[in-house]
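Q: Please design a sequence for this.
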């Protein structure tokens, strides 16, 4: 059971004290408080855990500080979408809104290699009206002898360049909790010229201690990659670790599954799960066509397979696209073969917009023809 309190309720108020007294004394029930800071108001959610089956929802809803009570299922308590659950989804970070109905594109470098490429990439993004990008500084590599990313050394020039080109959010994978502090210290020192979305890579989907550490801070939202060898349910449960620690600003990213059945793609594209994740949870959903398709193969219709996969995700309602680009793919230190080139950016962006509009039109079509309008 979840009790959502009246917005901005004071903890000193009589209503709050009475309500908490009642809830705290329910036998076999423990409470977990979760605060959600919206644009204009703060919401307190009280999760009732344990023996909640026999609780009367109407009785909880009638408590003086409670606005609404929702019976929630056992799984994904915070991030999940439950019966009668009208809680808002999404969040705004550094002026950019992420929710289950809009769309943001994060085209950028898989791995930061040098200042010139970062500058070329960001300049091109800003010329095309983009405010978000991806920049890998800490790279989890299969082979210990491969380039591991420049780490904290590149952060100052990456963040400064982002500021110069008006980039507001950089998706950046971290592989250890100490990286949060490195990023935070650097941004603070530079006067926060840009923002960072902490990316959890597929190899760390079930690194629960890393997830808890990321969840303990609320400064940075999280881009959470689906585990490439586990079920969707296991990945969604792992994402919930972030929320139980206090950070529910989470975007769930589909990036393909590791199975030979996906060949000749690098991974088996799993974008049919876009609407499924939106049905099961309130998280905005991202698709990563680069790491799922993993090639620059071109179909006979003249389009790259990676752009076809992107279209499939977006037309099904994806809210974010994460894509590898590189100004000189042949020089890229990581994932060059799958990177799109700068002259492919305008068509890529326009194609995504087209698919996003088509997704909206598909909803109208079904509403109209199924008589709901
Ligand atoms: C990445 O996005 O750079 C990456 C390594 O992705 P994944 O964790 O999905 O393999
Ligand atoms: Mn990559």
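A: Design:
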């Amino acid at each position: 059971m979840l009790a959502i309190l009246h917005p901005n309720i004071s903890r000193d108020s009589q209503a709050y004290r009475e309500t908490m007294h009642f809830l705290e004394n329910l036998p076999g029930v423990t409470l977990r408080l979760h605060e959600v800071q919206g644009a204009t108001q703060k919401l307190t959610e009280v999760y009732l855990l344990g023996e909640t089956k026999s609780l009367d929802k109407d009785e909880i809803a009638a408590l003086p500080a409670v606005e609404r009570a929702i019976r929630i299922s056992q799984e994904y308590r915070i991030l999940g979408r439950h019966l009668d659950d009208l809680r808002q989804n999404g969040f705004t970070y550094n002026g950019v809104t992420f929710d289950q109905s809009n769309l943001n594109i994060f085209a950028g470098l898989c791995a930061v290699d040098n200042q010139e490429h970062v500058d070329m990439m960001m300049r091109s993004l800003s010329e095309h009206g983009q405010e978000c990008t991806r920049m890998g500084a800490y790279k989890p590599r299969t082979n210990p002898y491969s380039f591991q990313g420049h780490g904290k050394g590149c952060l100052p020039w990456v963040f400064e360049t982002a500021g110069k080109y008006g980039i507001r959010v950089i998706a950046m994978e971290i592989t250890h909790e100490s990286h949060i502090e490195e990023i935070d210290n650097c941004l603070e020192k530079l006067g926060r010229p840009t923002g960072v979305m902490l990316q959890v890579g597929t190899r760390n989907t079930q690194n629960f201690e890393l997830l808890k550490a990321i969840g303990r801070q609320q400064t940075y939202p999280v881009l959470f990659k689906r585990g490439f060898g586990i079920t969707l349910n296991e990945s969604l449960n792992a994402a919930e670790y972030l929320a139980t620690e206090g950070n529910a600003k989470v975007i769930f990213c589909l990036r393909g599954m590791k199975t030979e059945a996906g060949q000749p793609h690098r991974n088996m594209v799993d974008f049919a799960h876009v609407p499924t994740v939106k049905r099961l949870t309130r998280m905005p959903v991202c698709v990563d066509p680069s790491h799922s398709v993993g090639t620059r193969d071109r179909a006979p219709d003249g389009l790259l397979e990676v752009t076809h996969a992107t279209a499939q995700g977006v037309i099904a309602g994806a809210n974010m696209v994460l894509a590898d680009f590189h100004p000189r793919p042949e020089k890229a230190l990581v994932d060059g073969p799958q990177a799109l080139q700068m002259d492919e950016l305008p068509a890529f962006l326009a194609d995504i917009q087209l698919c996003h509009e088509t997704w909206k039109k598909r909803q109208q079509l079904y509403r109209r023809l199924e008589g709901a309008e």
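Q: Thanks. Anything notable?
A: The mean pLDDT is 95. DSSP finds eleven helices and 14 strands in the chain.
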